[in-house]
Amino acid sequence: MVPGTFNRLKPFRHFYNQRNLSFLKRAQLIQELKEDDTACKQQMESGDYLFYHKGKPLLGSGPTPAIKWIDFPLANQLHPDLKSTSVLLGVSESGTAQFATNLSSKEDPSLIEKDHKSRFTDLRTGLFIVTPGLAQTLTRGWSLLMWSKKTNFCSNCGSRLGWLKCFHVSYNSKT
Questions:
Q1: Does the structural domain 5-150 have CATH classification 3.90.79?
Q2: Contact 101, 85 (CB under 8 A)
Q3: What is the distance between the alpha carbons of residues 70 and 120, in angstroms, rounded to a whole number?
Q4: CB atoms < 10 A from the CB of 173, how many?
Q5: Regarding beta strands 70-71 and 97-102, do their DSSP bridges make them parallel or antiparallel, or are they unpaired?
């Protein structure tokens, strides 16, 4: 994929809405979003958001619970600092960027649950009531949010993340 492709494909939700994306194409789009902050910020405005409240994901209520995705305009109302606190989860088969974020402490979770016919469900419980693919998305979202909250500095040079000077990349060692 040519760097900067997303600049020509904004928003890619509408560009790919005729068909489902292959696994390879989604992987390329995810990599592009990870590497290009500008493209990621652009896609945030057409993306879907998974909200967590005190570690509990927002799941649709019904006979088969599923993730309740919230679109950008509403998500931005629920969390004014959305663009700086969200983490990229992936890209859906339809080409929509998916993000996870925590609910603003100023918002009342019961109102959101009522408005969207959904509820914030304990993560451990939620893992058993959704499909394995959705369970993976729930755990990935919470793990990335916690990593983002706790990791503020580069382990190599000590500079604040987001303003890296050393470009150090590290991988977990095999145990």
A1: yes
A2: yes
A3: 13
A4: 5
A5: unpaired
Q: Which of 82, 103, 102 is nearest to 40 (CA)?
A: 82
pTM: predicted TM-score of the whole model, two decimal places: 0.77
Judge whether residue 19 has pLDDT over 70.
Answer: no
DSSP one-letter code for 138 = H
Q: Cα–Cα distance between 66 and 52 in angstroms, integer?
A: 14
**Which CA distances in Å does 143 have to 13, 86, 138, 166?**
26, 12, 9, 25
Q: How far apart are CA 93 and CA 121, in angstroms?
A: 25
DSSP-assigned states of every residue in 108-137: -HHHHHHHHTEEE--HHHHHHHS-HHHHHH
